Amino acid sequence: MIALVARELRLAWAGGAAVLPLVFFLLVATLFPFAVGPDGPLLARTGGGALWMAALLSALLPVDRLVAPDRAAGVLDQLALHGVSEEAVAVAKLAGHWLSFGPPLMLAALPAAALLKLPADVLARLEIGLALGTPGLAGLTVAVAALTASLRRSGALAGLLLLPLAVPLLIFGAGLVERGNAQGAPQLLAAVSLLFVAGAPFVAGAAIRAGRE
Amino acid sequence: MSAPLLRLDEVTLSRGGRRLVTGLSLALGAGEAAVLTGPNGVGKSSLIRLVAGLLRAEAGAVERTGAALADDQLALDARLRLGAALAFWARLSGREPAAGLAAMGIDHLADVPVRMLSTGQRKRAALARVVASDAPLWLLDEPANGLDTEGRGRLAALMAAHLAGGGAILAATHQPLGLERAREVALG
Fold it and tell me: Is the ipTM of this structure higher than 0.85?
């Protein structure tokens, strides 16, 4: 299992693929003030939600390199022959994907928050929300990547599948940024995230098996 | 006699609504080999994938022990050096990768990235993974494709050694593999 996760991390960093979502995230944070104007209080009020949108979209970027290349190269078949279940492969991909984009995204949120003039307490709530929500986002991405792996040019379809499912994460994540611990936003965010993390390996595993037929 | 390493019992296989194999029964014990023959598209590769557990039979049962598969998909990370790419799989089977490299005569390529390998070298690498696994049943889909005379000689020697060591081989091929006493299963 450790070898599988290590392989996912190596693939993620090979050729700088893992840097792309970060650059995208920071780019959105840079562009947002240009769009709404340099109004400090307005940026501080809306910036948290904008960063959640950016996180959501940047998690989607690697969706076409998570499962499809391994399927095409026969890696998934060989793993099955080596006695690794499809669900275990999906767990490894989830862990590898989260490690390659979750913590770096939380680091990138620091300069992004500075660009948007977010106050310290808002930034802290954003970081807590990202820590709770990005595992669920990684789970969704792996599940959608497995579902669309056998289709050609599936990038847009993957977006259409993933983004509606990510709505609960967005609502509770942005709610946590805006209103803090009131109304149980962190608990609900954690619950949704846990649901996605727990369900994704089974969805992805079944999708990988079905993709062989 | 001990339990067979592979047993197909009245297996029926369909792909894309087309019946490829009907009611095929086959048993391979230790030291036995079978060669699937037949024209292109008759279902040799599909039958190999079925035995590997990657496809499901429409009817019938497949029982087998641990198997290693070499088909036309390399399944090695293109950016890695060949030695490291094979070591990933060897570690999963708990074996030393160097044995497979030396056996296929490509130990001098261990430091070459996988994407730089030629067709024949790729085929040798795929076979090296099979050799390095400890699986008693080898599933070989066109194992001699792309190999030169020297490579085919190595393959024949390795297969003979595997059978002598109590293994079994199921191969699909169009060309003679040098497997003596292999049963021929003609499809189609």
Answer: yes
